[in-house]
Design brief:
single chain, alpha+beta, Jelly Rolls, 3 domains, 6-stranded antiparallel sheet, 5-stranded antiparallel sheet, 29% helix, disordered N terminus
């Protein structure tokens, strides 16, 4: 890892080179001299930005661009590929905001649901929950104005007719609603789905009766199919774009550390990326480092103690360490903090990773059910990609919305199997394809009782048969 002295010395080289018009050649030489620990440092400090750049921009591409909202009408299925470990127990409203030219106002209704939250996240992957039912919100219609430090012509002043203001840490932001649809109550589901469709975005200029300010054409660096693709193909281009559209605090140690790591490579906030002048990194080396680091983070989820760490994830800026940011960016971007949801993994009783060559059962007696004030679920994924396991039934999770059936004593058995065993309710069967594939189950506990969570233990999956 670069020492502070060495970082300062390399930054001084960059300044001197800029004055002499030689920044490109200096950056080239610095890139070529990166040691293995320096490459690891670069990957670790970049992962949060790469993951969220991929997520936010993939959603923008899918739903037709920025300053748009798309509301679900049904739960996600295995065709969902924009994000690892997606949610299958709530409906989403995905809003993508471009805050460069004008603030954007989110107009939202009241919701007849026992769980709704709004999460705002920029490329830096710090998670903010400005509104949720747990905080007493969504009982009435409201308008929230969102802006960034670079939003043209707006400095945070009150706007008549707007209920809330929120300063985002970046210019390109995802504002994601999670809504429990009460799928087992058809009339209520219909009301909730209708309310979701009424969420809309309007710029401040439009709100004041004018026309929306034109957005200049902006070229986004290509996204990657995976985060490793960005590390291997166009890391410097992506990070230059991120640097130009993200707020970095002068007194924030993590912010300054990532800026310092990139300065010797010619990537600094406010600069235009020039491929001819940019450093040439060894993409294969960066990709290998990213894959190795991601694999190590995923391996931690099979440790029973990892559930305790999960309670520290998905916090606002100033409340996160680099290690936690890395974990949440690898495991599943844009989750929620502990007061809103917890995500304990279901590990195996024998300590071995689950594999689709075998069947498993997850048992919970009534007293062992998760202490959720809203609701809970168990979702199955393939570990390598974090996607749902494809199946004709489109059954990927067990819970109140995706379907579950408690036994006569109030407990439940959830079966992970290639074929449904006799006597197992359809609702409690998670299908798999019989093949050599590592799989993993993740719980979601919405509005957990944090006091009870101190002693509650997540269930373990027991292998069925040989």
């Amino acid at each position: 890892m670069l020492t502070i002295f060495r970082l300062r010395r390399q930054n001084a080289w960059i300044v001197a080179a800029m004055l002499l018009g030689l920044a490109g050649s200096v950056a080239q030489s610095v890139a070529a001299a990166l040691s293995d620990p320096e490459v690891d440092n670069l990957v670790r400090r970049s992962y949060q930005y790469v993951a969220m750049y991929n997520v936010n921009n993939k959603f923008a591409l899918k739903q037709g661009g920025w300053n748009s909202c798309v509301a679900d009408t049904r739960l996600k299925d295995h065709t969902m590929r924009e994000i690892a470990r997606p949610n299958n127990d709530t409906l989403y409203i995905s809003c993508l905001l471009d805050l460069r030219a004008d603030p954007v106002i989110i107009e939202m209704p009241a919701f007849d649901s026992k769980y709704v939250s709004l999460m705002v996240t920029a490329y830096d992957h710090y998670v903010n929950i400005p509104m949720s039912t747990g905080q007493g919100d969504f009982r009435r219609a409201e308008k929230m104005l969102v802006f960034s430090a670079r939003t043209a012509g707006y400095k945070g002043e009150p706007v008549k007719g707007v209920d809330r203001r929120f300063e985002a840490s970046g210019d390109f932001v995802s504002a994601v609603f999670r809504v429990m649809p009460h799928a087992n109550e058809p009339e209520r589901f219909k009301r909730i789905a209708g309310a979701m469709q009424s969420v809309k975005l309007i710029t401040l200029a439009q709100f004041r009766g004018g026309k929306p300010k034109p957005l200049d054409d902006i070229r986004f660096p290509p996204v990657g199919k995976t985060d490793a693709d960005v590390f291997g193909n166009n890391l410097l281009e992506v990070m230059q774009f991120v640097f130009n559209h993200t707020s970095f605090g002068p007194n924030n140690a993590l912010d300054q550390a990532v800026v310092a790591a990139y300065a010797p490579l010619g990537v600094v906030p406010g600069r235009t990326f020039d491929a001819a002048q940019a450093a040439t990194l060894d993409g294969a080396r960066l990709r290998a480092a990213a894959e190795r680091i991601a694999a190590a983070e995923l391996a931690k989820t099979n440790n029973p103690d990892f559930g305790k760490q999960m309670q520290l994830l998905f916090q606002p800026k100033g409340q996160m360490t680099l290690e936690l940011l890395l974990s949440q960016s690898v495991i599943g971007p844009i989750g929620m903090p502990a007061r809103e949801a917890l995500y304990p993994p279901v590990v195996t009783a024998d300590g071995k990773p689950m594999n689709a060559m075998h069947d498993y059962v997850i048992r919970m007696a009534k007293k062992d059910l998760p202490p959720a004030k809203a609701f809970w679920s168990v979702t199955l994924y393939d570990v390598q990609n974090g996607f749902f396991i494809p199946n004709e039934r489109k059954k990927y999770s067990v819970g109140e919305n995706a379907g579950m059936k408690l036994d006569k004593d109030g407990g439940i058995e959830i079966v992970i199997a290639a074929q449904k065993p006799a006597g197992v309710p359809e609702e409690n069967w998670l299908p798999i394809e019989r093949k050599d594939e590592v799989i993993g189950a993740l719980m979601r506990i919405y509005v957990p009782d944090l006091e009870k969570m101190k002693t509650w233990q997540a269930p373990k999956a027991e292998r069925n048969g040989k």
